[in-house]
Design brief:
With about 350 residues, the chain is of the alpha+beta class. About 40% of the residues lie in helices and about 25% in strands. Strands 10-9-13-12-11-14-15 form a 7-stranded mixed sheet, covered by helices on one side. Strands 4-1-7-8 form a 4-stranded mixed sheet. β5 and β6 form a beta hairpin. α3 packs antiparallel against α4 and α8 runs parallel beside α11. About 30% of the residues are buried. The N terminus is likely disordered.
Length: about 350
């Protein structure tokens, strides 16, 4: 008993030592019209500080856990013009007009990276305004220009994403990658995310890494070679069904995660219908797992689309059992499972699904 008590006491001491509070001091420049600046800690809207600004200047002081992320900005209703910094105890200077950061080595490096990408951000804002002005005109010139804008915007996004990923890879010894990582996770592959989200990274145990780690675990559950995870949901008649009733029974099964309200899901459905009609006689099956909340909308979509396969849902939206079991954070998504219950592929859409099935049923 004494040994257990001693070990518990040591553990509590260690926990206390890791929770280190530090003070921050931030001075900054804003436009003369700005009257107040808001600081949000770790994206928690319940942990904010509002500071008065006057004559284009503001000063803020406070205290948080060491290396907490502070989002400092203004005009939330207009898009929240902001910069992200990390409270490591050293004074920080911000310029929310020119988007520059000065402070500790890590905050200065982050600021340099953000400032280097500023031309791309400005160009994206210009393109977005032009695109918005052309919407609804429905003339050939406008349609052509909108296509050109989308192409340029996608190119800029790719450049920015690559620059941010390169920054993350070269800054695994500090926490500043968390200024970008949580917003990038939907664009990263399993291998890319697992490469940068490792226990040796300085940001691995930071609160802002929780969502990326959850995403990584979800992707891990959908990797080829992994056994499927069973689900318990109701069918359209309200009867409780298990995914294992159809999966792992000798045939290839596409478990398709979707929702009636999801435009991209419905756009992909004709492809799934075509695959089902072409290969069902050869043993191919589909189970639709819905992220719906409204029973009527779910059933109506099934009928409209012609989803003749098995359909299940617990009508809990993003809180559904599938979200936790497979780490689904965006739809459409799917897994293709072999006859033994092993996942052979994930997120097959369009021609990729048809090519994979043609390979299996050649």
């Amino acid at each position: 008993m004494r040994k257990l008590f001693f070990m518990a006491a040591v553990a509590l001491t260690a926990m206390g030592a890791n929770a280190q509070k530090v003070k921050y001091s931030i001075s900054g420049v804003v436009a003369d019209s700005v009257k107040e600046v808001v600081i949000v800690v770790n994206n928690n809207k319940n942990s904010t500080q509002t500071i008065a600004a006057a004559n284009g200047r503001f000063t803020a002081t406070g205290e948080t856990e060491k290396n907490d992320m502070l989002t400092v900005g203004h005009d939330i209703a207009k898009g929240f013009n902001s910069l992200k910094v990390f409270n490591d105890g050293e004074a920080i200077e911000l310029n929310l007009v020119e988007n520059t950061i000065k402070g500790s080595a890590q905050n200065t490096a982050l600021g340099n990276h953000i400032h280097a990408n500023e031309p791309n951000n400005v160009r994206m804002q210009t393109l977005a305004k032009e695109y918005h002005s052309l919407r609804g005109k429905n003339d050939p010139e406008s349609e052509t220009r909108m296509g050109e804008i989308m192409k340029e915007a996608m190119s800029i996004e790719e450049q920015t994403s690559k620059a941010n990923l390169d920054y993350i890879k070269s800054h695994k010894n500090d926490v500043t990658p968390l200024a970008f990582l949580p917003d990038m996770i939907y664009d990263l592959s399993f291998s890319e995310l697992s490469d940068i989200l490792t226990p040796d990274a300085a940001y691995y145990n930071h609160p802002m890494a929780a969502r990326p780690k959850k995403m990584l675990e979800g992707l891990r559950k959908r990797q080829p070679g992994v056994m499927f995870t069973d689900l318990v949901m109701n069918d359209t008649e309200g009867k409780e069904r298990k995914l294992s009733e159809w999966v792992g029974k000798g045939n290839y099964v596409l478990v398709d995660f979707w929702a009636s309200w999801c435009g991209p899901c419905r756009a992909e459905m004709p492809n799934v219908v075509a695959a089902y009609e072409k290969y069902h006689a050869k043993g191919f099956d589909v189970v639709g797992v819905s992220f719906d909340q409204k029973d009527d909308a779910w059933k109506k979509a099934i009928e409209q689309i012609g989803m003749k396969w098995h359909n299940i849902s617990d009508l809990k939206g993003w809180q559904c059992a599938a979200s936790a079991a497979y780490g689904i954070s965006s739809i459409p998504s799917n897994i293709l499972v072999d006859g033994e219950g092993k996942i052979v592929a994930a997120d097959l859409r369009g021609e990729a699904l048809q090519e994979k099935l043609a390979e299996i049923y050649k």
